[in-house]
Amino acid sequence: MSHEVTNPPPPRPLIGRERLAGLCLVAFGLFALYASADLPFFTEGGVGSGLLPRALSVLIILLGIVQLAICWREPPESTGSWPIRDMVPVLVGIFLFALTIRGFDFGSFKIPVLGMAVATPLAIFCSGMAAKDARLVELLIFTVVLSALCIALFRFALGLSLPVAPWLIGY
Amino acid sequence: MMDMLYNLGLGFAVALTLKNVFFCFVGCLIGTLVGVLPGVGPVATISILLPVTLALDPTGALIMLAGIYYGAQYGGSTTAILVNIPGEATAVVTAIDGHEMAKRGQAGLALGLAAIGSFIAGTFATIVIAALGVPMTKLGLLFGPAEYFSLMVMGLVFAVVLAHGSLTKAVAMILVGVLLSCVGADMETGRERMTFGLHMLTDGIEFVVLAMGVFGFGEIFKNLADPEKRDLVKGSIGRLWPSLRDLRENMGAILRGTGIGAVLGVLPGNGAILGPFASYAMEKRLSKRPQDFGTGVSQAVAGPESANNAGAQTSFIPLMTLGLPPNAVMALMVGAMMIQGIVPGPQVIERNPELFWGLIASMWIGNLMLVIINLPLIGLWVKLLQVPYRLLFPAIVAFCCIGLFSISNEPAQVMMAGAMGLVGFALWKLQFEAAPLALGFVLGRLLEEKLRQALIISDGSMTTFVTSPLSAFLLAIGAVALLVAVLPSIRKSRDDVFKDA
Amino acid sequence: MLRFNRRAALALGVALLSTAGLPALAQDYPSKPVTLVVSYAAGGGTDAIARVFASRLEKALNGRVIVENRPGAAANIGTEVVASAEPDGYTLLVGNQGPMAVNPHIFNLKHDPAEALDPIAMIADASLVVVVGPRLPVKSLAELLEKAKAGELVYGSAGNASASHVATLLLGQTAGIELKHVPYKGAGPAVNDLVGGHIDFMVTTIPSVIGLVGDGTLTALAVTGSERFAELPDVPTVAESGLPTYTASAWYGLLGPKGLPQGVRDKLASATAETLADPEFIAKLKNDGGVPSTLSGQAFADFMASERARWGEVVKAADIKVE
């Protein structure tokens, strides 16, 4: 790996898509090897819980090296832009949903069980803000309508035991 | 033969009563609905409805529950095609080319072929159950742990064929999938593996979390990063329904898929999941343009969808002839029968012929209903794609979040899927394919389970995999398929190297 | 953006559901839906019993009862959820012998079920059955034990530390024989391999094999309960077959967080008793191989304590431990 980094820098993209892919495989394999290091390889009379994970980790590292070897001499291709910032609202929406649907205990700070009545509109509105062409009023109306629909559908039509709004109606 | 016709006649007489047709319709409708909704599967739905079925008569109850099951299989493909979220392992294959077709404006064609393919498969599978149900039961019993392990190895080799890009990367993705399937408590010792002390990981990573994250959320991230591409989806909406010519071109794939799916559906322990991608692998092998697979080939939707539906139905065979449930839904069906005071097992055919044959006949009626319910819906689904993406994706996020949470009422699953979405995006950026990952994940669980069971039984002797003729045969097929898949690409890449030099 | 969004959404949520009033206090219990936690995913045996039980309990309590599946960590998550819930009677647990009597011996649990939970009443007690398949053509338990002494037999179980597993361990320990364990994921696939002749025998729940026993595909050698099972009158108990001290069963009970108000406890206990007298519920239990229980309150607590001590010894002797 260190060998790879000291490679004379190619013209534009530093590593290139294919090499990055190879490096990712090697890194993932090493990580898995570390994660499964405490597991026994064999047990009396059978395969231990560590055999398959560690064998797979080694194979993945090897494949990563093969991948690096294949693209070694090819000119690196760019992976394009990584517009992580555009995704943040969606991730925030997903996380807010997770934190509010059943509440969350951070130790010093507690989020109560807010239920679907809060979590669903949060998820919809927040992720909707990710679109470059988002329109506030339209999104607000859409959020209200769709949230009501979701509650009606999942909680009442399908009968899933999801908290709706315990702080308001008790369940 | 006459017996069979007589029995089927009895079955249709039972299934065609107004009441049972109604139950069948309700089941198919609920099934389609929960299938379309990502995360809410037939297992949760059926268990919620179980106490309700107490009030119904046994035949009606079972007809309805069965309708939910194959309706859900059907609905799941719709979501896979439209928004690239495979709600179940079997829909992963459909999503590969199905969603590409939808992006090119052929959503109607893809959905239509899926519907018609499923109907043909359902018809054929109904006949198979009626005629060959009992002998086919024996097939499932031949598969002990050793044979099953070899079958999974063969399946993983087929997964290589699914890839349309780099072979190295595809194999790596399969292995990563198998590795991810190892996370969680060890089935033999209960010891936690690679869970980092996280409670939510002790039972392993949920397939739905992986699929919705990598495929569902990943697709949204992809589209947000690339707004031009996402607009192509709405560029042109093709014909809504497939033409006769489309049907003719896909009939071979449908029939082959049906055959493969029907056989694999009988296997215990979810063997049916192999069906769709064995069919995909076969279509790719037979195609004159295998390089187009993965870019929206109709045969790659029609074949696997037929296999899926045929398998979903023949998986009733072990349940009905032996009382052995091959998957979680069938286990619930056992529960439903017990609630009604019917002991599932070989005696059901003799003791409750009207139930047995009525259920079989209702499957065909159910398939007909699914076509009737879904063909008109295709127009609606395609219209759904015309909803501005800025509103479509928040809706997908909401449905996914609720679905993910409802799996085990655990918010952490929702967060994990969100993180998986980023992984999916990174995979796309690095041109790794997600389908082999998902398949490796699904097959990996069974692979290790069966490997270890087989070795316990054989006292740790690896020869158990070749001394069983069936196991040896399956391994041989796998080896040949691997050679066929790998050799050309090794030769080709070597040619490329020489060309460059 | 974030802060605004949150406030807006909260306001929306309030606007959306501003019609209903606040729930009344817990004087006339239950004044809101009761949540019945099941530690397994929807679709399992415990889940099925809990759902039918819940639908009957609703009538007896005259209020809604919602089943909530909180699976995970060998059913320990459900225990934890209820142990740390408010003891107001609105969060209850359907506990069974796995997490209540076996898990405390093999896991490091955050909450000891005996300390953190209040046993309300036992629901049912289900006998298991010893069955053999075509690979081991024996006709009685004595014969099976004979064969096992001659060479190691392979048995399947519904999973590590499941009722099916520990009951077989106890059988082996009582008879003084070595057995080889093949864990499966649930009874279904294990029974499949038993029928296919890939394993020798199994101790499993009665409903998972009763159809196959009736047909002669499998042979039932003995039931593990203290009495014969009505639907299998010719099958002796294990105790009758030469191991007089042996009994094992899968049981289910209703528990709440420690510190339930006495009034709520009494109401729940009498509602459970009423449910268990319902002929339809009894019929359902019978189909699952179970009989309704009469133990409640302290008697149920004592039963759990004795079960826990008993299985603790079995698990210790077999050296099952999850580190």
Automatic annotation (TrEMBL), chain A:
Q: Does the keyword Lipid biosynthesis apply?
A: no
Coiled-coil residue windows = none
Residues annotated as signal peptide:
none
Spell out where the chain crosses the membrane. Answer: 20-39, 51-72, 84-103, 109-127, 139-158
Q: Note the Pfam families from the entry.
A: TctB (PF07331)
- InterPro entries the UniProt entry points to: DUF1468
Q: What is this protein called?
A: DUF1468 domain-containing protein
Residues annotated as domain DUF1468: 20-163
The species is: Gemmobacter aquaticus
Keywords linked to the UniProt accession: Membrane, Transmembrane, Transmembrane helix
Automatic annotation (TrEMBL), chain B:
- Family matches, as InterPro entries: DUF112_TM
Its transmembrane ranges are: 12-36, 48-72, 109-134, 146-163, 207-225, 253-278, 324-343, 355-381, 387-407, 470-490
Its keywords, alphabetically, are: Membrane, Transmembrane, Transmembrane helix
Q: Does the entry feature the keyword Transmembrane, yes or no? A: yes
The DUF112 domain covers 22-438
Q: What is this protein's name?
A: DUF112 domain-containing protein
Automatic annotation (TrEMBL), chain C:
Matching InterPro entries, A to Z? Answer: BUG (IPR005064), Bug_dom1 (IPR042100)
One family from Pfam that matches here is TctC
Q: Where is the signal peptide?
A: 1-26
Q: Which residues form a coiled coil?
A: none
> Which UniProt keywords are present, listed alphabetically?
Signal
Q: Which family does it belong to?
A: Belongs to the UPF0065 (bug) family.
Which protein, by its recorded name, is this?
Exported protein
